Amino acid sequence: MTSTIAILLLENFLGLAAFGSADMFKTANQIADVRGDEIMPFQVRTYSLDGEPVQSSNGIVVTPDGALEEISAPDVMFLPGIGTTSAPQCTISTNWFRGVAERLQHLSQNGTIIAASCTSTFLLAEAGLLEGKQATTTWWKQKEFCAAYDGVELAGDEILVDAGNVITSAAGTSSLDLALHLINRLEGPALSRLCARFMVLEENRGLQQPFMIPWHEKTRDETIERADQWVQNNLSSRPLKVQDLAAFLGMSTRSLLRHFKRELSMSPQQFILNIRCERAKSQLEYTTTPIAKVADDLGYSDENAFRRSFLAQVGVSPAQYRQKFRK
């Protein structure tokens, strides 16, 4: 039986998420054809709010197959992320979004799987589809997501979360993981595995933690910038104490903690750990320096301490990280 996939193209949608996912479903059909299957597994159709052409975040204009109101009962409703430097600006009372929310709610109640990647996970949360459920979102908007939707259990480290009738994925190419997961769920692991190999995509990537960049939302704050420079210059010190950082900045430890919580939503100790971790990533990616030497250069007491800290921060060991990201 053919599964129908409806891709909703909102203004400034992420081209990679829409086109890449459509290509993944097309690949599944091509593999099925080569195998001699009588029925193609997927039928993909695209929709915009009003059926009119819509522009993607990369400037490509797409003429959809239909309008939102024409979506009846697809097996999957797929929402690509929206290209934005901030969270999508919508509420349940926003005129354009009210119709989207109502359609999503109706489809979900009638058995359609609702799938969203990147910033479109905000739309699902705003429509109430994630309330009381576990979900993930793009790593650089997790703070805003948590603040806006405290009824959602955010699994921020995960690339993909399947909560039954609602599936969410993280940033960027996680939309391909989402498409692959849907192929697995609807047609089975054999076809999804073949699609992954054909598209040169690693299956079950699991975590987005190794890809996170702490400085994406770094505040242009003089105190933070001075702290950053001081930590960078003293990474080899053992131990690197928050009290010493506070003294350098001419602040009390308590004032420093309040400032970091207000500006970065983290403690000074976590700030130091993040910088150490980023320097370690760079060493692992661009040099062949032995891991024990990396640990020593960055002020860790020994290699085991470095390994434990790195694993807690990144989700993989230093050796695993080097194997995956070595330039």
Automatic annotation (TrEMBL):
Gene Ontology MF: a single term: DNA binding
Coiled-coil stretches noted in the UniProt entry, renumbered to this chain: none
Species of provenance: Pseudovibrio ascidiaceicola
Gene3D superfamilies, per the entry: 3.40.50.880, Homeodomain-like (1.10.10.60)
Protein name as it appears in the record: Transcriptional regulator GlxA family, contains an amidase domain and an AraC-type DNA-binding HTH domain
Domain of life: Bacteria
Domain HTH araC/xylS-type: 225-324
InterPro entries in UniProt: Class_I_gatase-like, DJ-1/PfpI, Homeodomain-like_sf, HTH_AraC, INH-QAR
Keywords: DNA-binding, Transcription, Transcription regulation
